[in-house]
Amino acid sequence: MNKRISYLRGKANKLTTSPGVYLMKDRAGKIIYIGKAKVLKNRVISYFRESANHDNKVRKMVSNVHDFDFIVTGSEFEALLLECSMIKQYRPKYNILLKDDKGYSYIKISNEEYPRITAEKNKSDKNATYLGPYASSYAVKQAVDEANSIFKLPTCTRRFPQEFGKGRPCLNFHIKRCSGICIGNTTSEEYKKVIDDALKYMQGGSEESVKRLTAEMGDASENLDFERAAKIRDQISAIQRIADTQQVIGDNSKSFDLIALSTNANMASIAVIMYRNGKLVDKDDFFLGDAYKQSQLRADFITNYYSGKDDIPRRILVDDDVDDMELIEQFLREKSGHAVNIHIPQRGEGLKQIMLAKANASEYLSLKVGRTGKEITALEELSTLLGLPTTPEYIEAYDVSNLGETAVVGGMVVFKNGRPLKSDYKRFTIKDVVGQDDYASMREMLSRRFKRYLDSDESFSRLPDLILVDGGKGHVSAVEPMLRKMGIDVPVFGMVKDDRHRTRAIAHSGEEISITSFRSAFSLVTRIQDEAHRFAISFQRKRHNKRTYELELTKVRGIGDKKAHMLIKEFKTKAALKKATVEELRKAAKVGKEVAKELHDFIAENF
């Protein structure tokens, strides 16, 4: 808690209601955050209200604010321009500071009798030739991959000519992705000519290469060198095939950027995919660290990203809402000198393209947080589907299992970041419910779980981001009012099964949300529901087996229900009982030697 909150709140109360920029400073006077506001007073005071429900990033920032300064501007647009300029100048700790992982890239041509073309991050080989540097690692890798594919260059680890004829050609030769240099039927001069063609292709582009190669093919045919003419023909076909696949949006006059956000718990990443003249030309990935309100995060990113760019397309497609969209469009229009439209596609090719960017952002974030792209996508999809304020990191799911009216148990399973966290699973024996009443049993289980939380029990110390109960609207209605009365403000949804006991929907507040068309979320919820059911059933069977063993043991003279329960509690399994010695049985059941010997013989004969 910041001890200067009262002072900061009082100072903020005196601010003007004009637009402007505010500068949060730490104890040393260093600027740690810069923001803009349409109404300075309202925006700044929102940070210091006692009831403020800040996300993690803002909470950290506020805890470090010692004082703040401000600059009044004539309009909100002027405030935006000033904010961008000052963020560049001061690079505050809690603003988005865009740092991608790319750096410069190079095209390397190794100095060998049979050279290789590779994409490299640095110039580490003094004997090699390098083209570059290039700002886009994506473009360099794409160009190298295309050149190696079109001209059928080797990408294996074999050394030539040292390994000519040593071993069979690899799979690439058989699928016609490599000309088979390892066979030894290509001279160094012929090979270097192909390398030269590949470099000219990368430097001059496909149209120039096709013209040049077509002329070479004609010369080869006139000289009756039909084998070389056939090879050049294949290269031309490959170049044209690559060019065709690049024009994925049909209209090659279109240039636009795709921007998509991916979040996981409190972390975020953004992917930017760039199309120019209908072709995918580059991709940027950014890890943004702490996540906060997604629409504001997109707005901050777009403003920051394009403030340092000269190439701003007329059209920017985004995956969801952007705060101050019209204001940002005005900013981009003045910077670029042409109209810029920010658009959220809802269907068709645009939606398909933005989902590609979304997948890229998820995959990039997965590398940072140690989760797969599918897991991140599933959690994001579930969050959007259920209208949750943030992506749920910690999910608890509950199921009840009945075996007669006197054997009712419950199971709680936990999924953290899309994966089971078995160390946090909990079992409940339903004690207070008479008969088979799923609603009452579910209420008892959740009541006991959250009472332990409120009592500061360490094993129940974490509050979940989402509660899922096995059942429909009735189950949600049975537990939600009780939780709210206890002061537990966690979203509660039911997992609804169809007639074949397969997940089909999510239930909440008197309605059902179909999830079958949301593939990633559907798979995750199905997995959670199946795991909750498995865990509850396994506990039920375990208890049933123990009760069966107890009843069997009471057949021995001198062993009643209490002593049978003591034996099962001590040895736990049938196998452990069979291995127990007479003395071990005597001590566990607290009986005499004669009864222990009779008990030992009974177990050996019947278990």
Number of self-contained structural domains? 5
Estimate the helix proportion, in percent. Answer: 40-55%
Gross CATH architecture of the largest domain: 2-Layer Sandwich
Provide the gyration radius in Å.
Answer: 34 Å
How can the largest sheet be summarized? 8 strands, mixed
Mean pLDDT: 84
- Topology-level CATH name of the largest domain: Nucleotidyltransferase, domain 5
Distance between the ends: 62 Å
- DSSP strand (E) fraction? 15-25%
Number of helices: 20
Instruction: Please tell me what the overall shape is.
Output: flat
Question: Which superfamily, in CATH terms, is the homologous superfamily of the largest domain?
Answer: UvrC, RNAse H endonuclease domain
Tell me how many strands there are.
Answer: 19
What top-tier CATH class of the largest domain fits best? Alpha Beta
Judged by helices, strands and strand pairing, the structural class is alpha+beta
* Low-pLDDT regions: 242-253
Question: What's the arrangement of secondary structure elements?
Answer:
Blueprint: H1 5-13, E1 20-25, E2 31-37, H2 40-46, H3 56-63, E3 67-72, H4 76-90, E4 105-109, E5 117-120, E6 129-134, H5 137-150, H6 171-174, H7 188-204, H8 206-222, H9 226-246, E7 256-264, E8 267-276, E9 279-290, H10 294-307, E10 315-318, H11 325-336, E11 341-343, H12 348-369, H13 373-386, E12 394-402, E13 408-416, E14 419-420, E15 426-429, H14 438-454, E16 466-470, H15 473-485, E17 492-497, E18 503-508, E19 511-514, H16 519-553, H17 561-571, H18 574-579, H19 582-589, H20 593-606
Helix pairs in contact: 1-2, 4-11, 5-7, 7-8, 8-9, 10-11, 12-13, 13-16, 14-15, 16-17, 19-20
